[in-house]
Specification:
5'-Nucleotdase_C_sf, Trifunctional nucleotide phosphoesterase protein YfkN, about 280 residues, 5_nucleotidase/apyrase, hydrolase, elongated, EC 3.1.3.5
Length: about 280
C-alpha cells in the first residue's frame, strides 16, 4: 500500500493463489477473499539496501532453480506446502529473478522506480510491510535474523487510522471509496520478471497446448493440493509408459511415437497431431 505508507518499497505476501476480482460491484467479502489475514496492517521500517536485498533473495527462494530444458516455472515443494505463505513480492522497485543462479544470488537489476537508480547495499530507505511478517523474518532462522529496525509509522496508530481502520482490508475499502471514487481499473505494473526459463521455444508452446487441453498435467503434490512443485523439462528422457499414458489421454495411437527419446520431441509431435485432428 504505497499510497498510505509513502514508503520507498512495499512487500506483500501472496496468501491466496486464486485471488480474483470480477467486473462489477466490489463487496467487502471480495476484499476479505483476496487478502485473508484479517489483522494485517501497514508498518513502515527504516532499512538498508542490504536488508532489502537479503529479504528479496529469501523471497526468491520460493522458486526452484531452473536447468536447461525447463519450460515451466516451479516452486520449492516445502515452502509451497507450508501452512504459512512465504511467497513475497515487492513494489516501488524493479527487479528480475534469475532462476539459473544459486539461492541467495538470484535478484538482479534491482532499481528504485521512483529514482530509476540502482539500489546500493549502503542505501537507507523505508520499507512498508505487515509487522507479523517482519517479526518472522527477524526470528531465529529468518532471512533478517537478529536485525533491529526503526519503526517509522503504523497504520494502526491512533494518529493514523486506528486499530480497526488501520487494517489492510479496511484501508483497501477506504482507498476504493475515497481515492478511486468507487471505481477500480486494474493496471499491470510490469516491475518484475523471471529469467532463466525457456518461455518462447516450440517445446514450450507444445507444453502450453497440451496442458490447456488437459492432456499434460503440471507436477503437483501427492494429495493434489499444491501444484507447480517441479518444472516440466523437455530434455528429459521419456519412458514408454509415459508415452502410452499421454497418448491414451489424447485418444491417439502410441505406436507412432516408437522412436522418440525425449519429452520435448514427444510433446511437440503429440501437440501437432491433436491440432491436426482438432482434439
Amino acid at each position: 500500500m504505497l499510497y498510505y505508507s509513502k514508503a520507498d518499497v512495499v512487500a506483500h505476501q501472496i496468501d491466496n493463489d486464486y485471488a480474483r476480482l470480477d467486473t462489477g460491484p466490489i463487496k467487502k467479502k471480495d476484499i476479505a477473499y483476496n487478502y485473508q489475514y484479517a489483522l494485517g496492517e501497514i508498518t513502515v521500517y527504516k532499512i538498508s539496501g542490504k536488508d532489502l536485498k537479503d529479504y528479496m533473495e529469501w523471497a526468491a527462494g520460493y522458486f526452484n532453480s531452473s536447468r536447461a530444458g525447463d519450460v515451466t516455472v516451479s516452486f520449492d515443494k516445502t515452502r509451497r506446502a507450508s501452512k504459512y505463505s512465504t511467497n513475497d513480492f515487492f513494489g516501488g522497485v524493479k527487479y528480475e529473478i534469475d532462476l539459473t543462479k544459486p539461492y541467495g544470488s538470484r535478484i538482479t537489476n534491482l532499481r528504485s522506480i521512483r529514482t530509476n537508480k540502482p539500489i546500493k547495499m549502503s542505501d537507507v530507505m523505508t520499507l512498508r510491510m505487515n509487522a507479523y511478517r517482519m517479526e518472522a523474518l527477524q526470528a531465529k532462522g529468518g532471512a533478517l535474523e537478529g536485525r533491529k529496525f526503526e519503526q517509522i509509522w503504523s497504520s494502526k496508530q491512533e494518529n493514523a487510522f486506528g486499530e480497526t481502520g488501520g487494517t489492510i482490508r479496511n484501508l483497501a475499502i477506504t482507498y476504493l471509496k475515497e481515492v478511486k471514487n468507487g471505481v477500480y481499473t486494474p493496471k499491470v505494473m510490469h516491475n518484475w520478471k523471471i529469467t532463466g526459463v525457456d518461455l518462447h521455444s516450440s517445446e514450450h508452446k507444445a507444453v502450453v497446448d497440451l496442458v490447456n487441453k488437459g492432456i499434460l498435467e503440471i507436477p503437483k503434490t501427492e494429495d493434489g493440493k499444491y501444484t507447480n512443485i517441479a518444472s516440466i523439462n523437455t530434455k528429459d528422457s521419456i519412458t514408454k509408459e509415459e508415452i502410452v499414458a499421454l497418448s491414451q489421454k489424447a485418444n491417439i495411437n502410441p505406436n507412432q511415437f516408437k522412436h522418440i527419446k525425449t519429452k520435448g520431441e514427444f510433446y511437440k509431435k503429440l501437440s501437432r497431431i491433436t491440432k491436426k485432428y482438432k482434439l
